[in-house]
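Lab notebook, entry 383. We have the chain sequence and a SMILES string for S-adenosylmethionine, and the next step in the workflow is to get a structural model of the bound complex before anyone spends time on docking refinements. Request logged below.

Task: model protein plus S-adenosylmethionine, output structure tokens.
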Amino acid sequence: MTPGVTTPADFETDDTPAPELNIRPLVDNALLPDWRGAGKVVHSAHRIYEHLISLWAPGVIEAAHDLGVFAELSTGPKTSDQLATACDAEQRAMRVLMDGLYAYDIVDRIPADAGPALYRMSEEMHECLLPGGLFSLVGKIEYDRQLAWHSWRNLADAVRRDNRDETGSLQLNQITEHNYESLVRGINFWAPPIVEALRGGFETLEWPTDRPASVLDIGCGTGLYSQLLLRAFPGWRATGLEAPNIAPIARAQAERLGVADRFDVQVRDFWTESWGSDHDLLVFVNIFHLQTPESAQELLRRSKEALSKDGLVCIADHLVTDEKDAKSIQDRFAMLFAASMLATGGGDAFLLDDYDRWLASAGLRRVAVLDTPMHRILLAGHA
Ligand SMILES: C[S@@+](CC[C@H](N)C(=O)[O-])C[C@H]1O[C@@H](n2cnc3c(N)ncnc32)[C@H](O)[C@@H]1O
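Result returned:
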């Protein structure tokens, strides 16, 4: 496997079982003695406390990033004293930080017969936590440092005012192009399972993929969704629409993935400039959650104009399908994503019912909804 160029194809050929670790509890609820009566309060307090301390995780991971700990560990296992020297930090404090990373299963700790333990990072963690890897989270970390910490701290203000402009209208999300330069590189890891689910959806719908097809990727970011589709379907070509600072990132990544001859990114404002016509697949990934209900409908109206006769609109986003209970993983994630959009200046996680109404008024109709780990894919065609 080429470091930094992991693709769904690589996942298919690698039969190593997936690691079982997910986020592990930090509170041992089994040891809470009484669940009834007054015990319920204590139980609830433990549960809320565990939520409140979830900010420890970005705290230690981002401190290690800031200090250069991950870069140091990429050259081999080190003791905390060695890391303290290399990162210009205090020895005791570095040991505390490293044990925090160990508690979160970010690093391994190798005990020594004599002397201090060694801290080691796996290959996968290098890929995730150093810049440059296709699925690196460094962009997400930078985005958190630039914007997210501050935004979440002030969520109550956003709830008081909502995301309204001076005329009182709801506004589009306010993340700047500068913030997107970090963010789009830090969310590539979402793409492989989404593209896999999409390919499964094409098969189920018997939507032909072995013919030449034109893909338009609206607000393509790094362009990874289109680029993975181009790798899967050699007869396809894709165009991404992007802002000036992001387009070069998409161009470079298309080269890296060997699809530059079929992937074109155009610097175009998708509100004011042409989308062309007769596209077989319109791809919107993480675009609808930035919208207001009005702008979402405008995107669908434009989609209707740009879509070929048997074409599909693919919306991969955080949408709530079960308004009543909303307790599936995807619905719960979507509801919290809506809070994140509120904190960062606009957007929402819209209901499937909303999409259905908007599709109908644009002359489109839903043909499928597919689940992915954190998103859902809504596929639509002409009504
Ligand atoms: C949340 S990112 C999603 C990127 C990509 N689709 C993904 O999921 O990885 C939104 C992208 O839309 C782009 N964008 C926002 N408004 C745009 C506009 N009016 N015209 C072109 N691109 C725009 C941003 O620059 C940003 O890269």
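Notes for the group: The pocket of S-adenosylmethionine is lined by residues 177, 180, 184, 187, 219-221, 241-243, 246, 269-271, 285-287 (CB under 6 Å). Worth checking against the assay data. The radius of gyration is 23 Å.
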